[in-house]
Structures
1.
Amino acid sequence: MKSKKKQQFKTPEGYFDNFHERLMGKIVEDSDSSLNIIPKNDGFTVPQEYFETVGTVISKKVKDTKTKVIPLYAFRKYAYAAAALAAVFLFVWGITFRSEPSFNDLAAAEIDSYFEESELNLTSYELAEVIALEDIELKDMVDTPYEEENILEYLDETVDALEDLNIDYDELE
Amino acid sequence: MVAEETLVNDLKHKDSQARAFEVLVNTYKERLYWHIRRIVLNHDDADDILQNTFIKVYKNIDGFKGDSKLYSWMYRIATNESLTFLKQQSKKRGISNEELRQDLVENLQSDVYFEGDDIQLKLQEALATLPEKQKLVFNMKYFQEMKYEEISEILETSVGGLKASYHLAVKKIETYLKAD
C-alpha cells in the first residue's frame, strides 16, 4: 500500500535535472525586474580634468617617499666615526653627570609643538580619562581671554531678556 | 594593454619601475577611484585614499607573490583603506559606523561633486542601510559591472554567496525606493 501512495505524485520528466541552474535563473530574473526602478547612474561627479592630473600627483608623491629613504651604506664610514665619537662622549658624560633628565628639562615650546603637529586622534572620552576636570580652567579652552566687557557684550547680543538668565538677584547683592 | 605578468616584473626592477608604475596608475586609477568613491562618497576623501592605495601598492610590490591577480590585490588594498578610513572617522567623531554613513549621505545634498536627483539620493540612503558586504557587492556588480568571479577573488567569497548577497541587496533597495 505504502509503495502505491508514493507513486501518487509524479514530476515532469527531467524535473530535477538542472534544478539549481533553473532556480538561479529565476533569482536573476526576479532581481532583474527589481533593477528597473534602480537608477543606472549614481550622480557622482569629479572635478574637471581630475583623471588627467591625478596620475602626475601620485607619481610625484611616490617620488617624494622614495627620496626620503637615504641608503645608510653611502654614509657608512661617517657613521662609524660618529658612533665612535658618540660612544666616547656618552662614556665621559655618564661619568661626570649622573643625574637623570627631568620632565622640566623639556622646553615647553617643544612639547607644545609636538601636540600641535601630532595627530593624537583622541576622542573627548579618552581625553576625559587622562585629564581631571579640576585641572582644567575655562581659559584653557578659549583662544581669546574673556574680560567682563566681552561677557557683557556677548550677553547683550545674544540674550533677549535678562530674565532668561534666571539669575537670583538677591544672591548677587 | 601590457600583460599583467610583465607589468609586475617591470614594477619589481629598478630600471623599469618608474615607467611601469605610470602604466599601472593610468590603467587602474579610474576604476579604483570609483570603487573607493562609492564607499566613502566624498571626492576629497576618495582622492586621498586613491593616492594612499597606489603608494601602498608601490611600497609593497616586492611582497606581491602573484597568488591572485594584480588588480584583485589592488582592489583589496583600496577596499581595506576605504573601510579603515571610515572606521577612523567614526572613532574620531565619537559616533557609530551607521551614524557616520547617514551623515555622509546627508552631506551629499551640499556636495558640489554630487549631481544626483531625489531618486539617486534615495538610492544612497538605501545603500547606507545595507550591511557592508551587500553594499560592496551591489556597487561592484551594478555600477562597476564586474563579473561574480572577479568580485569573488577580491572579496574572497564564493560566487554563490555573492549572488545571494546581490539578490538581497537589490530586494532591500527596491523596497526602500518603493516606500512612501
2.
Amino acid sequence: MKQITVISGKGGTGKTSVLASLAYLARGDAIVADCDVDAPDLHLILKPKIEETCDFMGLQTAVIDELKCTQCGACQDNCRFDAIRNFQVNFRHCEGCKVCALVCPADAVEMVDQISGHAYVSSTKFGTLVHAELIPGQEASGKLVTMVRELAQEVAERENKDLILIDGSPGVGCPVIASITGVDLALIMTEPTLSGIHDLERVIKVAHHFGVAALVCINKYDLNLEVAQQIEKICKEMGAEVVGKLPFDPSVVKAMVAEEAVAERAGPVGDALKSLWDELKSHL
Amino acid sequence: MIISIASGKGGTGKTLVTTNLAASLKNAELVDCDVEEPNSYLFFPDLKITETSDCTLSIPIIDEEKCTRCRACSEFCAYNALAVFPQQVLFFEGLCHGCGGCAIACPEDAISEGSRTIGQVFRATEGDVNLLWGELNLGEAMATPLIRAVKKKAKGDLILIDSPPGTACPMIETVRDTDFCVLVTEPTPFGLYDLDIAVRVLKDMEIPCGVIVNRSGIGDRKVYDYCQKQNIPLLLEIPFSREIAELYSKGILFSRAIPSWKDEFANLISAIEELVA
C-alpha cells in the first residue's frame, strides 16, 4: 500500500484544492484521508455521507473536587502548563500529565477521560473518505491524525485499495510530523513569495529528517516568475524535485465556491493537475 | 492592550495584517507566535537582532546508580517517554512534555532535571517597530512551550501577536490572555468554515473578536452574511489586487508602498480600542 501526504510549510498554498483534484483523478482507486484535523475543509468539496463514526479520546484532563480541596496550592505550583488558576483546571491548557494528582495531599484531583473529537468513514463521489473533527479548542491533534491514518489503512485493506491520499496541515510541528511519518511521498505545496520560500525550505528539511521523499508543486507560479525560478533552484539543491507548476487562475476559487474539485473543470489549472497526477504516479 | 491576529484557515493573511499594522503604528511590539513558520521578520529587511535566547524544556536525568528499576517513573509518565529495562532506563525525548512528574514519582530520588533546547527566541528592532519571535527547531513536535516562552518576553503598551493557523493547541496558547482577537479570513467556503471554528473557540474563551476580509472580491458573500448574523464587527476589507500580491511576494509591506493604507491600519487600532472599551 502506498501513501502520499500533501503538506506545506505555509498555509493557504492550495493543499486541499490539490488533494481534492487528486482524489477526483484517482477515480475511486484511492482512499482519501483528511488529516488537517483542526481546519478540515476537504468535506466541503467531497460532500461525504457519513457511514461510521468513532469517538476520539484525547488526553485525560484533571478535575479538582472543590469539597476535598484545601486550597494549599501544591497543584498550581507544580503545574508546568499554567493550567490551574484559582484552584480550577482549565481543560484547554491541561496536558493530562497527572502531576497535580500526584502532589495533591488531599486527594482532591481526579483524572478523567474526555472525548476530544470524532473520526468518520464516509462515502463520497470520489470514493471513501476518512476524516475527523477536533472539538474546537481541544489538544492532541497529532494523536487524532494518527487515528485517522490508522482508520484509513484499515479501510484501504477492507476495500482492497493500494493508495491513500492524505491532506496534511500547515507548519512543521506535531500534526505535520504525524501525517508524514512512514508515507512514501510528501507532496509539498508552495507559492512564489518570500514567505513561501522560507517555509518551504523548513518543511523539506523536516520531511528529509523523517526519511520521507519530498516532491514540490508551485501554486500560482506565474504571480512572480522570478521567485518561482528561485524556488526551482532551491528545490534542486535540496534534492526535492518540482513536479508541478499551477498557473494563477480565478477558476480555482470558482470551483471551490461551486463545491467542485478544480480538476473537474477544463482549463490550464485542470491540465496542470493532470500532469501533476501522472508525475506522482510515476514516482510511486 | 494585547491584540492577537488569528485565522482558522492558513494563508488568509494573518502575517500580512500583523506586519502592516505594526509598521503603521509607533512603538508597537510585533510578536510572531507562528513558531513553526515565523515569517513576520522577513518583511523588515533593515532589522537589527538585539537579543537571542534558547527555549528549553525540562527533561529527566536518571542516576543509574540510585535507580532500582522500580518503574514508578515509567508507570507515571502519561506520554510513554520512559521505558525501564533491567540494564537501564530509556528516555525518548521527543515524547516528553517536560511535566517534571517522573522526578516527583521516583521514590529513590534518582531523577534530577536537565534541559534540552527546542527552539530560539529572537528580539529585533527596525525604526519604530519592535519585533519578537520564536523559531522551533526542525523535527521538534511541540510548539506550545516555545509559544509560552515568546509571550513571556513580550512587553510594551501595544502588543500585536501573530498566531499560527488552525484552532488547536498552538493557536489556543497564542490567543490566551489577549484583549482582542482579529480574525483574518477570505470570502470563500474554506475561509468561512474555518472562521466559524475559530469564532467558536474564541467565544468559549471569552475573547472578543472582529473580522478582516482579505482578498475581497474573490469567492462569494457568505462570510459577510455570517458576520452580520453572528454580530461580529467587520473591521477592514483588503481587496484582491495583483499589486498587493506582488508586493507581498517580494516581502514589501503594502502600507509602505501605498501610503493611504498606513492610515487605514492606524485607524483600525482606534476602532479596536473602542470595541475593547
